[in-house]
Amino acid sequence: MRAPVLRKVIDQILLICQNTGVYNTHFCSQIKLSESRWKVEKLKNLNLSPEAKRIKYDNMSVVTIDMVDPWNSYVIRNSGIENRKHNLDDVTEFKKFKIDNGLNKCLAEKVSLYKGDITRLEVSAIVNAANSRLKAGGGVDGAIHRAAGPHLQEECDTLGGCPTGEAKITGGYNLPAKYIIHTVGPQDGSAAMLKKCYENSLAFHKSHNITSIAFPCISTGIYGFPNRLAAHIALRTTRQFLEQNEGMERVIFCTFMPVDVEIYETLMQMYFPVHDWNYADDARTEK
C-alpha cells in the first residue's frame, strides 16, 4: 500500500478510535507509533473538553472569557480613561470607515482590552505574530511556542511558511486556546498588508468555528510599525468584521506595553463607543 493511502487509512482509524472512546487502547497506541506525533496530539487536544484540558495546566492560571471584561464594563470600571482625547490624525483615520451606530451597544459587549499574557487565555484561537518561516522567534512568537510545546513547531514545519499578510492555523496543544492562528505582519510599514493580517485571521471564524479570538499588537515590535496607526487598523478591521458576522462572540486585544494600553483605551472609545455621543465629533478633538 502506497504511503499516502496508508496515511489516510491511519487517519480514519484514529478518528474511529476517538469517536468510539477507545483512543487509549493498545491498538490505537500502536497506530500512534506510525503517525506523526503532532497530529495525534492535535487530534487528542481538539477533542478534549475545556474542563479536561484544564487538568493538564497544573499551576498555570487560565483566564476564561468571563474573567475578561467586555469593553462596556471596562469603561465603567476605569472611568478615568474617558478623559483621554484623540487627535486630528485619529479623526482622519476614523473617518475612513463609517460605523453603524445602531450596533454600538451590541458590539461594545463583543470586544475587550486585556493587559496580560495571551498564552493564558481560554479562547477559540489566539493569534501569533509570526515570521514568514513559521519558526519560533522572540517576543510573543517565542512565548507562544514555549507555552504550546514542541508539537507546535512540528506542525508549523509542515505548512511551508507563510507570506506577509497571510494567516495559517494550527492546534493549540498545551495552551488553553483551541487553535493558534499564525500571521506575518509587514516589515515595510504597509498598512494594506497589516489590514490583511487581521482580515485573514478573522476569516477562520467560519471554517473552524472560531467564536472568540485574541490578537497581540501585530508588527509594532521589532518590525517597527507605528503603534497608533496599527491600533486604528486593528480596530477598524475588527469593527467592520463584527458588523457583518454575528457569530463572533468576543475579540480580545492583548496589550503589553503601557503605550499600547493608552492608545487602545483612547481609540476603542471611537470605534466602539458606549455613549450616545460619538468620538468623531469635532467638539471632542484636541485643539
From TrEMBL:
Any one GO cellular component localisation term in the record: nucleoplasm
Organism for this UniProt entry: Spodoptera exigua (Beet armyworm)
Domain Macro residues, every copy: 98-272
Highest rank taxon of the organism: Eukaryota
GO BP: DNA damage response; peptidyl-glutamate ADP-deribosylation; purine nucleoside metabolic process
Protein name: Macro domain-containing protein
GO MF: ADP-ribosylglutamate hydrolase activity
